[in-house]
Amino acid sequence: MLELRNVTVKYGHYAAVNQVNIQVFKGEIAVLLGSNGAGKSTLFRTISGLMKPARGEIIFEGEQISGKSPERVVEDGIVQCAEDRKLFPQMSVQENLMMGAYIHRKNKKIIKESLEEVYNLFPILYSKRNEAAGSLSGGQQQMVAIGRALMAKPKLMLLDEPSIGLAPLIVEKMFESIQQINREGMTILLAEQNAYAALNIADKGYVFENGNIVVQGTSKELFSNEEVRKAYIGA
């Protein structure tokens, strides 16, 4: 579904992402593992059209999307759920969700169906739909962010650090929700520092360090890789 071929992204002369090759197949959960500053968010912004690669190609469903505007990338079916959620805190939960449905704004039926799907996935959001998004707990805000992304009815979701700042029990529930979204047909590319939680739900992973992929493999292979375990799992 998604293929990155020798993608390099620069800030001035500095290569934040260096000759990266990634493949994500339809129906998979693939994870990018790496610490802060490794280049994961830069790569996501590039896939989303917010940044342009200095070199390389980004292919989505057989079509070159490098250089497309962010709105065109969303229309093609790729939606990013950004790190730190990026909600509109003074707006209600439902208003935030509706922002995600902007490309379907002329189709009330799709919007209604999407809202029902999000509220079925995260029932707590229905009870809080008229409350300001900024008043919610961190876990609930993350639900709103994921729900807003789902409102665009994407084919591929980019999830950037969904566990950041959340308590361990909430992280577990969040990853269960991500698994459920995937089981319902969503392809997911996940960027995470929490390697243990991510690899438990992912099909495969790529370890990102200083803009480079240094290790890749199935989740089982990465779990059994001693260097990966020491650096990211603590075992």
UniProtKB/TrEMBL annotation:
<dbReference type="InterPro" id="IPR003439">
    <property type="entry name" value="ABC_transporter-like_ATP-bd"/>
</dbReference>
<keyword id="KW-0547">Nucleotide-binding</keyword>
<dbReference type="GO" id="GO:0015658">
    <property type="term" value="F:branched-chain amino acid transmembrane transporter activity"/>
</dbReference>
<dbReference type="InterPro" id="IPR052156">
    <property type="entry name" value="BCAA_Transport_ATP-bd_LivF"/>
</dbReference>
<comment type="similarity">
    <text>Belongs to the ABC transporter superfamily.</text>
</comment>
<dbReference type="InterPro" id="IPR003593">
    <property type="entry name" value="AAA+_ATPase"/>
</dbReference>
<dbReference type="GO" id="GO:0005524">
    <property type="term" value="F:ATP binding"/>
</dbReference>
<protein>
    <submittedName>
        <fullName>ABC transporter ATP-binding protein</fullName>
    </submittedName>
</protein>
<dbReference type="GO" id="GO:0015807">
    <property type="term" value="P:L-amino acid transport"/>
</dbReference>
<keyword id="KW-0029">Amino-acid transport</keyword>
<keyword id="KW-0813">Transport</keyword>
<dbReference type="Pfam" id="PF00005">
    <property type="entry name" value="ABC_tran"/>
</dbReference>
<feature type="domain" description="ABC transporter">
    <location>
        <begin position="2"/>
        <end position="235"/>
    </location>
</feature>
<dbReference type="InterPro" id="IPR017871">
    <property type="entry name" value="ABC_transporter-like_CS"/>
</dbReference>
<dbReference type="GO" id="GO:0016887">
    <property type="term" value="F:ATP hydrolysis activity"/>
</dbReference>
<keyword id="KW-0067">ATP-binding</keyword>
<dbReference type="InterPro" id="IPR027417">
    <property type="entry name" value="P-loop_NTPase"/>
</dbReference>
